[in-house]
Specification:
The protein has 467 residues and is of the alpha+beta class. 38% of the residues lie in helices and 21% in strands.
């Protein structure tokens, strides 16, 4: 079917996640911030001809790989093609070259715009690695895949590939993103539901007074703006700067023993791992900002509530601020439960627009778009990956784009390599440097270790004596 022959095609408005993702363009000159470049590397060499057949089947099975975007009456809408031509897949051979040469080719594509409004949803290439393995690379617009969808793409692609190699039955196909869209759009357009969201966040950000801006780099920016505005009590901060959005990514790997300790502790204390990580991050921010107890962090919410949601592609990630006020005289265990309670509250209202949130805060405290109380994003993705039984080993890497509209984005995701965990820090070089990130990572690990060792200590003892 060509673009001109679209009879019978149904058009859909953008869902909540897509609207939120597009908002990043308000704060960056670089449209690359809307894409996800991800590499999957194997310690064996793929049969690239069979792998191309697997990609063709994946395009047939996974409808988010057949999405298109166009404008209707001035608004961006989406639709799904019943079939889509196989993309041109290049094959690179880095045999005899260096890792740096291999990384340079990948980085060059990661920084190249994916033009989703020009019918380019993704670019894919295969390669032989410099050290005898092979890899698959996809650079996909965030408008059709979130982190979970990329993971599902790779998982299904590998299952198809090994089924073709072994001559076995193909796995069950993913559910359709298109089937899930109507309910998501209906909820987004439900005025009563959105009014409840607004009332919730109004209460969250007014019942305890004005929030406080706590940055991962400390008080420097807030103090600078306090001096400029001649207001020593200023609590909000302007953090969006489209001219200083250059970023750098640093990855720290923690082994399976770290993950085992975290899982065992969370089972024992009956809290989800995300509550431990979020408590560690907000404790770090408190320590870096004169021990202020009032901390707000953008958290990502994976809005996949049904089984069909969880088994389909598409993008459903929500970015929403979570405010927690933790006094120093309660125990770490109590504090983590407080954080968990706030998380659950936010999850129930996660489909509230950041633009509406900015307007709401403006009504309450006179802040403007780009000014607020939240300094960083934190995303924990608890995906599980089972290595194939044929002895292959895989590892994944979220590649560096080079620009990001917020001072810091922190991604915590299980490592395919050894069942450990990878910590990604994508930071604006205008605000932070590698030494700051290294110190932040060490402090967060120290906080996690201290919580595991003694969850009955007070938050004050943790802040002033331990870290």
């Amino acid at each position: 079917m060509t673009k001109k022959d679209l009879s019978g095609i149904k058009y859909y408005p953008l869902n909540f996640s897509q609207i939120t993702i597009r908002m990043q363009l308000f704060f960056s000159r670089h449209k690359q911030v809307l894409q996800l470049p991800v590499t999957l590397i194997a310690d064996h060499v793929f049969d690239f001809d069979i792998l191309k057949k697997a990609v063709a089947l994946e395009i047939e099975r996974n409808d988010c790989m057949r999405m298109q975007f166009t404008k209707k009456k001035g608004k961006l809408v989406q639709y799904f093609l019943p079939e889509r031509e196989m993309p041109d897949i290049k094959i690179y051979d880095f045999t005899g070259k260096t890792k740096e040469e291999q990384d340079a080719v990948i980085l060059a594509d990661a920084r190249k715009m994916v033009r989703f409004t020009k019918n380019e949803l993704y670019r894919i290439f295969f390669f032989k690695t410099y050290n005898g393995g092979s890899g698959i690379y996809i650079n996909v617009t965030h408008m059709c895949m979130d982190a979970t969808a990329v993971f599902l793409f790779y998982k299904d692609l590998l299952d198809i590939y090994f089924a073709l190699v072994n001559g076995t039955e193909l796995p069950k196909p993913p559910d359709k993103f298109e089937d899930c869209l109507p309910m998501e759009i209906k909820k987004l357009q439900d005025k009563e539901h959105q009014a409840k969201n607004r009332e919730f966040f109004k209460q969250q950000y007014t019942k305890d007074g004005e929030p406080f801006y706590a940055a991962p780099f400390g008080m420097s920016l807030l103090n600078e703006q306090r001096r400029k505005k001649k207001n020593p009590n200023l609590r909000a901060c302007r953090t969006m700067d489209i001219f200083h959005d250059k970023s750098k990514k640093i990855i720290y790997h923690e082994g399976p023993e770290f993950v085992s300790r975290v899982k065992e502790f969370c089972r024992r204390e009956r809290i989800p791992e995300q509550a431990l990580f979020q408590f560690a991050i907000r404790t770090y921010l408190s320590a870096m900002n004169e021990f202020n107890p009032d901390i707000s962090v953008f958290i990502y919410v994976n809005m996949r509530f049904t089984l069909a949601d969880k088994n389909s592609g598409g993008t459903r990630a929500s970015c929403i601020p979570m405010r927690s006020i933790i006094p120093e005289d309660i125990t770490v265990k109590e504090a983590m439960n407080n954080v968990l309670e706030e998380m659950f509250k936010v999850f129930r209202h996660c489909d509230y627009s950041l633009l509406d949130m900015s307007k709401l805060l403006g009504e309450c405290y006179g802040t403007k778009l780009g000014t607020g109380y939240t300094s960083m994003m934190a995303n924990y993705v608890p995906l599980e990956f089972t290595q194939p039984e044929n002895g292959w080993k895989f590892e994944a890497k979220w590649e560096q784009i080079g620009w990001f509209p917020f001072p810091l984005y922190m991604l915590m995701i299980p490592s395919l390599r050894d069942n450990g965990m990878d910590f990604y820090y994508d930071y604006q070089v205008h605000r932070m440097d590698e030494a700051m990130i290294e110190n932040m990572h060490k402090m967060i690990l120290k906080i996690i270790d201290a919580c595991i060792e003694d969850p009955d200590m007070t938050v004050g003892h943790l802040l002033h004596e331990v870290i």
